[in-house]
TrEMBL record:
Name listed for the protein in its UniProt record: TetR-family transcriptional regulator
Keywords: DNA-binding, Transcription, Transcription regulation
Membrane-spanning residues: none
Record has Transcription as a keyword: yes
Any one GO MF annotation of this record: DNA-binding transcription factor activity
DNA-binding span(s): 32-51
Coiled coil: none
Superkingdom as given in the UniProt entry: Bacteria
InterPro entries, per the entry: Homeodomain-like_sf, HTH-type_TetR-like_transc_reg, HTH_TetR, MT1864/Rv1816-like_C, Tet_transcr_reg_TetR-rel_C_sf
Originating organism: Streptomyces spiralis
């Protein structure tokens, strides 16, 4: 079988876009470098210049997911900066929207694929997400919602709470409207608990 000439400006970006579509439509088991090459119209070995193997492709997808989720949370939070409770709700809602739109990608982002843990690129991208959450919590310190010494613990608690709500939605245990009500309740408890400890 002859391959069409390759005319994409950036093969890596094309492969990642297609891989995300495959992940979304058919799941992780359907991801194959050979199949992605076929769909991109390049030789089956061409993707190896960007991804050493399938795990490298999965890492690149996870890295992209973390970066995109962090950016979406930061953007949502920036539109609600005037009130810390609204900022927390906006960030949590952005997280859940991402989970609803990209459940397979979110699962991939938080699933260890190798025994020795995530690659340095994935670790760095996940740290970007948690740094974004920490920025939001630091804004709460500046607004007087809680003490600075609480920021690390509260960031982890908020992240775990939102991840749990997202998991409930993506597993269809609750609906998206129910998730919004749950977010409201969680943020109310979160802020009242933080202020009670002060």
């Amino acid at each position: 079988m002859s391959h069409r000439p390759f005319h994409h400006g950036n093969l890596r970006a094309v492969l990642l876009e297609r891989a995300e579509a495959v992940l979304r439509e058919r799941g992780i088991d359907a991801l194959s470098l050979r199949e992605l090459a076929r769909e991109a119209g390049v030789s089956h070995g061409a993707p190896r210049s960007h991804f050493a193997d399938r795990n490298a492709l999965l890492d690149a997808l996870a890295e992209r997911g973390f970066v995109r989720l962090a950016d979406e949370i930061r953007e949502a939070a920036s539109r609600a900066r005037e009130d810390h409770a609204r900022t927390l709700r906006a960030a949590a809602s952005a997280y859940v929207r991402f989970a609803v739109r990209e459940p397979a990608l979110l699962d991939l982002m938080f699933t260890a694929k190798v025994e020795d843990g995530p690659s340095e690129a994935v670790r760095s991208a996940s740290e970007r997400l948690f740094a974004t959450m920490a920025e939001i919590m630091n804004a709460g310190v500046e607004a007087g919602a809680y003490d600075a010494c609480d920021v690390g613990r509260l960031t982890l608690l908020l992240s775990a709470t939102v991840q749990g709500i997202a998991a409930l939605v993506t597993s269809r245990r609750i609906t998206t409207p129910q998730s919004e009500a749950l977010i409201d309740d969680a943020i109310t408890l979160f802020l009242s608990g933080a202020s009670a400890e002060r």
